[in-house]
Amino acid sequence: MNRVAFIFTFILLPISLIQGQNPTVSSKPDSKWQLVDDLSDEFDSDKVDWKKWFQNSNLPNTTGWKWNNESNVKINNGVAELTMRHNENNLSDNGTYFKSGILKSKGRFTTGYVEARIKGAVIDVPGPKNGYGVCPSFWLYSDFDRTVAEGKTVYCEIDVVELQQFDWFDGHQDDIRDTDHNLHLVKKIDGKDVWFRPKQHEETQLNKYRLNDDPSQNYHVYGCEVNENEIIWYVDGVEIARKPNTDWYRPMHVTASLGLRRPFVKFFDNANRAVNPLEDEEAKKQLGGMPTTMFVDYIRIWKKK
Questions:
Q1: Ordered domains of the chain (ranges, CATH)
Q2: For the chain, what percent of residues have pLDDT higher than 70?
Q3: Three-state SS for 62?
Q4: Strands 66-67 and 98-100
Q5: Could you read off the pLDDT of 272-288 as tens digits, one per residue?
């Protein structure tokens, strides 16, 4: 290597090491953060680092679709691509008709800061329903522990962001620019699992935000600070919501996934249930947009020094 090239490399190297060592923004700008390598991924290799992520086992239970990471997760030019595919010939797999990709961390997160740069998933069909039918998500969730004491948390979930849900709430139909940043909880009450859902507990669990553009066409940075007292959400470095952290203290897996939403599933009995897309007229119209892919540029997790 000649002298000029050596100096050039020497100058660039520290810059590349410095990038990504601090959250885009936090509640206390003077906080000192340390990147958690086991939970973070720049996706700068040509293959998924399955030492960090579960490939086949320990994936979340789903009733509306199946996971298949071999076919639906890949790295392309430094970006993780998670794809949702319609089963060939509409073949039923235990009553489901789609398979998708998911990145679920083997390590766990309790308090700190999580951040990902994500572009959603296009479903390119005629009319106003581009993106309608899938939900690109970045979220944290715990395992279930039913040995906890009465009144304690059995399961907790923090949705850093859910895109493209086209949710209907309080007389309003969301469009593709509306995003959800919610909390889910299961507590032991009278010895039983009791779910606390966002729409039932709007003040303590539900957050909505409206982007200035279409997230299936553009990248945005979605972040969340979790401390002992509060949970604080950020989009592109701007705080958009905060809630008291009363019950979200169980160790959680860091997860990015592409799930189904209406019209490919219907929510009842506390789960998204599969719809046969060839027997539902609305779902059939959206099939032309399959397969579809969400894009994750990076996932970065920090803890306070």
A1: 3-145+162-177+213-304 (2.60.120.200)
A2: 93
A3: coil
A4: parallel
A5: 999 999 999 999 999 99
**How many other β-carbons are positioned within 10 Å of the β-carbon of residue 94?**
7
* Of 83, 226, 85, 202, residue with least CA distance to 142: 226
E-assigned strand segments in 130-229: 134-142, 153-162, 168-169, 172-173, 178-180, 183-189, 192-196, 208-210, 220-226
pLDDT at 234 over 60: yes
Q: Token match 């009842």: residue? A: 268
Instruction: For 104-134, write each residue's pLDDT tens digit.
Output: 999 999 999 999 999 999 999 887 788 999 9
Q: For residue range 29-38, list pLDDT tens digits in order.
A: 788 899 999 9
* pTM exceeds cut of 0.85: yes
- Backbone φ, ψ for residue 20 (5° rounding): 80, 10
pLDDT in tens, 255-267: 999 999 999 999 9
Cβ atoms within 10 A of the Cβ of 263, count?
Answer: 20
User: Identity (one letter) of the amino acid at 294?
Assistant: M
Longest dimension (CA), the chain: 73
The token pair at 109 is 């997160």
Give the separation between CA 68 and CA 229, rounded to whole angstroms. Answer: 37
